[in-house]
Design goal:
By secondary structure, the protein is of the alpha/beta class. The chain is about 40% helix and about 25% strand. The longest helix has about 50 residues. It starts with a helix and ends with a strand.
Length: about 180
């Protein structure tokens, strides 16, 4: 009988220690999740503060090419990254998976793009273009070549009197670019 009591007492201690170890483990996991949650909140807050008070180029695509254009530009410009992508879901007024809104950087500059479900009476206009001051001959030539591929050259690279070299392009997505070399 005495052995049984000692054995039961030993089992009780083992189970108590095991329970405390599990509680400690669970507490550790909860703490890790809280840290991760706080970190994600900080990223969201940083993103929101970046977006406020910024002038962001917003590209609205009516042909479903937002993602293609974004990836095309990301491949051309250094210091580029996708920041966020929100996609249209099932039952949306456009194809599932198309971009509702994406935010990205091209050479450190903020851009947004979206696939517009309704087709509007307007599209991109060359009167509003993205102007890039190039650092050297190699950069202006490379950007001109890549951006004009499958696009439309509105002013070929040349000296027009106001700079050393200038070019005006409407790319394959209908977006206009002015390239300049002082």
């Amino acid at each position: 009988m005495k052995r049984s009591v000692i054995f039961l007492f030993f089992i009780f201690i083992v189970l108590s220690c095991s329970k405390k170890a599990k509680e400690k483990n669970n507490s550790s996991e909860v703490h890790k999740l809280q840290i991760e949650n706080d970190s994600l909140k900080a990223v969201i807050n940083q993103h929101n503060s970046i977006m406020k008070n910024q002038i962001i180029r917003s590209l609205t695509f009516q042909d479903g090419n937002a993602e293609n254009a974004m990836n095309f530009y990301m491949g051309i410009f250094d210091n580029s990254e996708i920041i966020t992508i929100k996609r249209w879901g099932k039952g949306a007024p456009t194809d599932e998976g198309k971009i509702m809104q994406a935010t990205f950087k091209l050479n450190g500059n903020l851009f947004m793009c979206s696939d517009s479900p309704p087709v509007h009476d307007w599209n991109f206009t060359p009167a509003v273009a993205h102007y890039i001051e190039c650092d050297d001959e190699e950069e202006i030539e490379e950007l001109f070549t890549k951006l004009s591929e499958k696009g439309k050259v509105m002013m070929p690279l040349n000296n027009y009197g106001f700079s050393q070299k200038f070019g005006f392009i409407e790319d394959q997505f209908g977006v206009s670019w002015q390239l300049n070399l002082e």
